[in-house]
């Protein structure tokens, strides 16, 4: 029999949800059963599964035998686990910052058994909470944040919804950019799915989206841009770039397919988009974070090839 003391991370959480996290692989129906039978007690008394836990509560948890779940660590390919662990660049009590490689989906689904978050949870079965604070497309590399508590997740979402997080990407676009920095304020709307994929377009009836494009390196037929986004809409940079006539190089959905035919000769097999910098100050704690990620070898190699051509 285990006695667990509720700390501030779990205060306010429902008992059933707390037990789902604590008892890995146990179904919700079994949790309801052991709570109803009184095998789980809070401060020595019976409670209902929907009971809200408070800081300082003592939860008595009985031993529960379960079969290993489909998401158990031994089911996750070792190569994937090693890839994720190698991508972790910072970890503290509140969050994990990763430098996500291209080709790694953040979520499982659509025939993909494990995404980054499922594999990370399986590798850390005793972690009370792990959740994506935001997302990156599968073929986009770079900085990704994972919250280790619901409180941290809420704070990060507050920053992301407002102007509290400085998010900068590097994108190589087609065409010689004219002039300096340009602010793009174009609302976006999801068009539904085509061929099993989400599509986004500029639409006056969409939700607001703000991107600032700043040229960093000019080439005869391409421009390396730093893109600062004030909102985090799906495919925002890619759609904005395409709409203003400078699609992201290698973008298989919104790009210039004719111009992209020579990308493989440059060593590029995906879109040239990289989440390069995150800077923010955490509410309540006041802790400041600043993460930077250099261009990965495939993108740097493509850029070098274009410059030497």
Automatic annotation (TrEMBL):
Which Pfam families does the protein's record reference? PseudoU_synth_2, S4
What protein am I looking at? Pseudouridine synthase
Please name the top-level EC class of this enzyme.
isomerase
* The protein's role, per its UniProt record: Responsible for synthesis of pseudouridine from uracil at positions 955, 2504 and 2580 in 23S ribosomal RNA.
Q: What is the lineage of its organism?
A: Bacteria, Pseudomonadati, Pseudomonadota, Gammaproteobacteria, Chromatiales
Residues forming the RNA-binding S4 domain are 13-70
Output one GO MF annotation. Answer: 23S rRNA pseudouridine(955/2504/2580) synthase activity
- Locate the active site: 137
A GO biological process this protein is involved in?
A: enzyme-directed rRNA pseudouridine synthesis
Write down the species. Answer: Acidihalobacter prosperus
């Amino acid at each position: 029999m285990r006695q667990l003391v509720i700390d501030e991370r779990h205060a306010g959480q429902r008992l059933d949800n707390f037990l789902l996290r604590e008892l890995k692989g146990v179904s919700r129906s079994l949790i309801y059963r052991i709570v109803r039978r009184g095998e789980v007690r809070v401060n020595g008394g019976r409670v209902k599964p929907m009971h809200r836990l408070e800081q300082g509560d003592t939860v008595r948890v009985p031993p529960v035998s379960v079969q290993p779940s489909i998401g158990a660590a031994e089911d996750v390919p070792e190569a994937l686990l090693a890839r994720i662990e190698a991508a972790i660049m910072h970890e503290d009590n509140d969050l994990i910052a990763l430098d996500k490689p291209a080709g790694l989906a953040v979520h499982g689904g659509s025939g993909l058994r494990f995404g980054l978050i499922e594999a990370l949870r399986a590798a850390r079965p005793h972690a009370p909470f792990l959740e994506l604070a935001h997302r990156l497309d599968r073929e986009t590399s770079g900085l990704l944040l994972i919250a280790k508590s619901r409180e941290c997740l809420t704070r990060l979402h507050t920053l992301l919804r407002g102007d509290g997080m400085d998010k900068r990407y590097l994108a190589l676009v087609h065409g010689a950019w004219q002039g300096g920095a340009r602010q793009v304020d174009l609302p976006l709307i999801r068009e539904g799915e085509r061929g099993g994929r989400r599509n986004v377009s500029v639409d006056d009836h969409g939700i607001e989206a703000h991107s600032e494009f700043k040229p960093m390196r000019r080439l005869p037929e391409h421009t390396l841009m730093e893109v600062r986004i004030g909102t985090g809409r799906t495919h925002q940079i890619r759609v904005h770039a395409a709409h203003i006539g400078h699609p992201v190089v290698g973008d298989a959905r919104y790009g210039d397919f004719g111009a992209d035919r020579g990308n493989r000769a440059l060593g590029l097999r995906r879109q040239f988009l990289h989440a390069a910098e995150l800077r923010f100050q955490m509410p309540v704690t006041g802790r400041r974070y600043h993460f930077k990620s250099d261009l990965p070898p495939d993108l740097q190699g493509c850029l070098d090839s274009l410059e030497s051509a």
